Amino acid sequence: MAEASGGTSPPEIENLSFEDALAELRHIVERLEQGETKLDEAIQAYERGAKLKAHCEKKLREAEAKIETIRLGQDGTPTGTQPLDVEES
Q1: Alpha-carbon radius of gyration of the chain
Q2: pTM for the full model?
Q3: Using CA atoms, how far apart are residues 84 and 44, in angstroms rounded to an integer?
Q4: Residue 79: strand, helix, or coil
Q5: How many CA atoms lie within 13 A of 2 on its CB side?
Q6: Which are the contacts of 22, defined by CB distance < 8 A and separation ≥ 6?
Q7: Alpha helices of 1-89 — where are they, by DSSP H?
Q8: Measured on CA atoms in the order 70, 71, 73, 76, is the torsion positive or negative?
Q9: Rounded to an integer, what distance in angstroms lies between the CA atom of residue 15 and that of residue 2?
């Protein structure tokens, strides 16, 4: 497995919170935009960035699945909840 330039292994992506994964992804993007990394390091950073992006997307989908909307009856009173349909937006 690849190691970070500091000699320590980066944390497993699956164990990162959304916020930590996003912060690391931003850091990788900044490093790549500066163009001061060696080609092999840039490729490894890009690959990790792609995995971090997928992890963030998964976390967002999980959060969206937990959001519910309140259902109202014909008289306007709440009758329960239903999953938020985010695809309609």
Answers
A1: 20
A2: 0.67
A3: 37
A4: strand
A5: 11
A6: 52, 56
A7: 18-34, 39-66
A8: positive
A9: 17
Per-residue pLDDT tens listing for the chain (89 residues): 344 444 466 789 999 999 999 999 999 999 999 998 899 999 999 999 999 999 999 999 888 877 777 677 788 787 777 766 655 44
Could you tell me the residue ranges of all domains in the chain?
Answer: 13-88
The number of C-alpha atoms within 13 Å of 28 and in the hemisphere containing its C-beta is 21
Distance, in Å, from the CA atom of 27 to the CA atom of 77, rounded to the nearest integer, reads: 48
Rounded distance between C-alpha atoms, residue 43 and residue 27, angstroms? 15
Structure tokens at 21: 């994964």
User: Which tokens go with 14?
Assistant: 């699956």
8 Å CB contact between 46 and 59:
no
* 53, two tokens: 């992006």
